[in-house]
């Protein structure tokens, strides 16, 4: 009976791994009762475009085969999201230097993922410039949970939010340094009562030194998004970041090129104020994914001040952020499904990050 279903599932291809889901080891043990087919799928990136497509196709072919599909998720991979209890897919947003739009990308990435239906947290770990409260127009103080030990995150646009800015005041100078920062942030991450997250986007402090690396190693990070602007000095710094992740077996999810081409609202001409194409060249050189190019757009800056993420508007810049978010989620899914496939077939999985 399940043969017919298995045969039907051979027609469903994983659009990223480019193999049918049965051969890729993504289908668990199928059971059928009263015409309902229970199908466990090894999916790890909820609401990502590729996994949504896979699930839709599975429902379609199972329905065509004459059964009522009932899908569940069962993934056995070696990423921190699977091996650390209750860990979401933690995505670090980093940059080699300050001011390239790291926080802007983190806010719009998280908002776009929540807009797709995912449960998303945003953790502002940029102690030296906690911009997230302003960028989302949230200025309250978080409360304590009933256990008096955990902090309840604030909420906005469906996001669960935590920022050092909620605790110390945005304009207060941050007096701690180095190792103390790592400790405070790691502690804060663990002390928040995150509620059943699919993804947690972490806005790291700019730079690629020990502080960033320590934080990456102490949180269950699935991979990092590297943000750069197209000019050489920013790219040089971004390159250092990519190398650092490489050397420590941390996944780079890909590169975002921000403040790329400016389209003049008056004349419609395109201007490459900070040059263009550098992010793509960097991605090519290191064989990592190019996640997208965000234009230099006054509306992006304004949205950072009005507290409403630009990705929620109906503009070209919003569409580029939506695409970037889809690409990031797909990359997370690819890492998790690949890891599951290696585990399922008894091959060596890449080492999980130290937590
Ligand atoms: N694509 C863009 N178009 C126009 N302005 C932008 C764009 N991206 C970011 N900005 C603006 O550039 C400034 C710096 O952005 P942001 O704070 O996101 O950078 P950052 O890399 O997080 O900086 P920091 O190093 O201070 O943490 C902000 O005023 C932001 O609104």
From TrEMBL:
Annotated keywords: ATP-binding, Hydrolase, Iron, Iron-sulfur, Metal-binding, Nucleotide-binding
MIP18 family-like domain boundaries: 3-63
UniProt binding sites for ATP: 96-103
Pfam families membership: FeS_assembly_P, ParA
Classification via Gene3D superfamilies: Fe-S cluster assembly (FSCA), P-loop containing nucleotide triphosphate hydrolases
Record flagged with keyword Acyltransferase: no
Gene Ontology MF, one: ATP binding
InterPro entries tied to this protein: FSCA_dom_sf, MIP18-like, Mrp-like_CS, Mrp/NBP35_ATP-bd, NUBPL-like, P-loop_NTPase, YlxH/NBP35
Annotated function: Binds and transfers iron-sulfur (Fe-S) clusters to target apoproteins. Can hydrolyze ATP.
Classification via HAMAP family: Mrp_NBP35
Family: Belongs to the Mrp/NBP35 ATP-binding proteins family.
Quaternary assembly: Homodimer.
Name of the protein in its database record: Iron-sulfur cluster carrier protein
Organism: Halosimplex aquaticum
């Amino acid at each position: 009976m399940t043969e017919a279903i298995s045969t039907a599932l051979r027609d469903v291809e994983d659009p990223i791994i480019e193999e049918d889901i049965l051969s890729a080891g993504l289908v668990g043990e199928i059971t059928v009762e009263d015409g309902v087919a229970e199908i466990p799928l090894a999916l790890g990136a909820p609401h990502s475009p590729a996994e949504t497509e896979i699930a839709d196709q599975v429902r379609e072919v199972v329905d065509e085969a004459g059964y009522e599909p009932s899908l569940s998720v069962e993934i056995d991979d070696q990423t921190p999201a699977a091996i650390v209890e209750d860990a979401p897919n933690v995505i670090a947003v980093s940059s080699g230097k300050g001011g390239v739009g790291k926080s802007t990308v983190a806010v719009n990435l998280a908002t776009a993922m929540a807009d797709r239906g995912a449960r998303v947290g945003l953790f502002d770990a940029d102690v030296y410039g906690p911009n997230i409260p302003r960028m989302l127009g949230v200025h309250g103080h978080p409360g304590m949970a009933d256990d008096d030990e955990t902090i309840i995150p604030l909420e906005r646009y469906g996001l669960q939010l935590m920022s050092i800015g909620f605790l110390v005041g945005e304009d207060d100078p941050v007096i701690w340094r180095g190792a103390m920062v790592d400790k405070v942030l790691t502690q804060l991450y663990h002390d928040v009562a995150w509620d059943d997250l699919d993804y947690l986007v972490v806005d790291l402090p700019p730079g690629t030194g020990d502080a960033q690396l320590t934080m990456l190693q102490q949180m269950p990070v699935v991979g990092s998004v590297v943000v750069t602007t197209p000019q050489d000095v920013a790219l040089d710094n971004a390159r250092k970041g990519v190398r650092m992740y490489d050397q420590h077996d941390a996944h780079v999810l890909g590169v975002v090129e921000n403040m790329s081409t400016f389209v003049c609202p008056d004349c419609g001409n395109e201007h490459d104020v900070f040059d263009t194409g550098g992010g793509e060249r960097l991605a090519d050189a290191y064989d990592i994914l190019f996640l997208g190019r965000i234009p230099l757009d006054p509306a992006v800056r304004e949205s950072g001040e009005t507290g409403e993420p630009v990705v929620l508007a109906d503009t070209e810049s919003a569409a580029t952020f939506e695409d970037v978010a889809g690409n990031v989620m797909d990359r997370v899914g690819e890492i998790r499904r690949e890891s599951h496939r290696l585990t399922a077939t008894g091959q060596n999985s890449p080492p999980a990050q130290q937590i």
